[in-house]
């Protein structure tokens, strides 16, 4: 007996063809790159990581890049590299993945929630003004879903108040604000290569900086605080002794991960074109539905099209969570990006955050969902998403 959708009818996609949300586009080139690392027996941090760092820095027009094993690690190390710690306050958007705030806590500092813009879902510099104190030392703008933040307002806010900027570019590898690539506005910038991201290494991250001294310290902190990484110690120029010069962490990226990243980086423009095509198709297909569709990018900006996030508002007559369940029953994988951080027990209990402090983030978090937007989607997959979403919303 075939599984039925929530309305009792046949689902758009049967269980054995369930469309996984965020499944990456992985081809033979990525597989061959990993196989090459295995055959060479260099599977830890080695020459491919070094090459990935150089090529990613070149793609972002920055002099230095430091590869790590996650964007969370990148954010944490960025806090430490800027000497942010106990007693310091750091402004973070309330609509973001928990890692943005957690990295601040890991460093011993205090995250301060900033509400987001109701249209862009990005860090609202106007709301941040009233949350700056004498202890505020930095801010972390998140380029949400691949849409660039208003960097003019954010840079002005930082300059006027003597704040450091750490860009959270987890969604924003390709993103540009008014022709300038994200990652070059602040002291440091952090990127994610998680499985669902526009460029994936399975797990991984990168930190961009303009300063060699900072890059060198980030590399030490990412590998136990040692003065030489594995590539330098075990390379063909002979063994080199190392010194542990400060307390570091085990945050390094592997050559197997970098092998995937190198192929993905070479394909990033092609993948972006496909995601834009899917985004445009969704915008047209859903224009008559009783939902709030994502805003189009501002003139002069380049959107990375990492997430497609319609809002299920009251005029649809449906609850967001019902739509999530119904789409899953139709064989379509979905996500939520994100519930407001003020909704999570950790921040309520430990930091005293309340929904009333960030009402826009709270409202978006109640109504948002994410539809599949991977370059690996076929035209038939895209049509299934459209059919299922329209079917659920038209009931």
Distance between the termini: 24 Å
Structure annotation, total helices: 14
Low-confidence stretches: none
The second-level CATH architecture of the largest domain is 3-Layer(aba) Sandwich
Query: How many separate domains make up the residues?
Result: 2
CATH homology superfamily of the largest domain: Type I PLP-dependent aspartate aminotransferase-like (Major domain)
Q: Look up the CATH topology of the largest domain.
A: Aspartate Aminotransferase, domain 2
Shape: globular
Output mean pLDDT: 95
Largest sheet: 7 strands, mixed
Helix-strand topology string: HHEHEHEHEHEEEEEHHHHHHHH
- Amount of helix: 25-40%
- Output the CATH class name of the largest domain: Alpha Beta
Identify the strand order in the major beta sheet.
1-9-8-5-4-2-3
Q: By helix and strand content, what is the structural category?
A: alpha/beta
Which strand-content bin applies to the residues? 5-15%
Total number of β-strand segments?
9
Rg estimate, integer Å: 22 Å
């Amino acid at each position: 007996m075939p599984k039925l959708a929530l309305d009792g009818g046949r689902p758009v996609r049967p269980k054995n063809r369930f469309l996984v949300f965020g499944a990456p586009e992985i081809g033979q080139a990525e597989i061959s790159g990993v196989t090459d690392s295995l055959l060479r027996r260099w599977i830890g941090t080695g020459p491919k990581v070094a090459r990935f760092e150089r090529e990613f820095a070149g793609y972002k027009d920055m002099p230095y890049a430091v590869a790590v094993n996650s964007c969370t690690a990148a954010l944490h190390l960025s806090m430490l590299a800027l000497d942010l710690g106990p007693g310091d306050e750091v402004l973070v958007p309330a609509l973001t993945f928990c890692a943005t705030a957690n990295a601040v806590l890991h460093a011993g500092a205090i995250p301060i929630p900033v509400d987001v813009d109701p249209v862009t879902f990005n860090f609202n510099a106007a709301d941040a003004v009233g949350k700056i104190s004498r202890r505020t030392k930095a801010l972390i703008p998140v380029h949400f879903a691949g849409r660039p933040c208003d960097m003019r307002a954010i840079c002005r806010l930082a300059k006027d108040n003597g704040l450091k900027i750490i860009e959270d570019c987890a969604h924003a590898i390709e993103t540009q604000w008014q022709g300038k690539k994200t990652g070059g506005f602040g002291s440091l910038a952090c990127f994610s290569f998680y499985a669902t991201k526009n460029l994936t290494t399975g797990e991984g991250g990168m930190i961009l900086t303009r300063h060699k001294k900072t890059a060198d310290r980030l590399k030490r902190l990412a590998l136990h605080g040692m003065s030489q990484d594995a590539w330098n110690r075990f390379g063909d120029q002979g063994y080199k002794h190392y010194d542990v010069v400060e307390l570091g962490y085990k945050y390094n990226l592997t050559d197997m991960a970098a092998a995937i990243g190198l192929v993905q980086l070479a394909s990033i423009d092609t993948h972006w074109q496909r995601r834009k095509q899917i985004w445009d198709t969704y915008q047209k297909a859903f224009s008559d539905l009783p939902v709030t569709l994502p805003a189009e990018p501002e003139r002069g900006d380049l959107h990375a099209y990492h997430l497609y996030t319609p809002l299920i508002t009251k005029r649809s007559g449906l609850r967001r969570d019902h739509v999530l369940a119904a789409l899953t029953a139709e064989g379509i994988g979905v996500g939520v990006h994100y519930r407001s951080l003020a909704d999570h027990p950790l921040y309520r209990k430990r930091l005293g955050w309340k929904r009333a402090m960030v009402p826009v983030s709270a409202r978006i978090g109640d109504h948002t969902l994410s539809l599949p937007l991977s370059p690996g989607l076929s035209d038939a997959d895209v049509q299934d998403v459209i059919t299922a979403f329209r079917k659920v919303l038209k009931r």
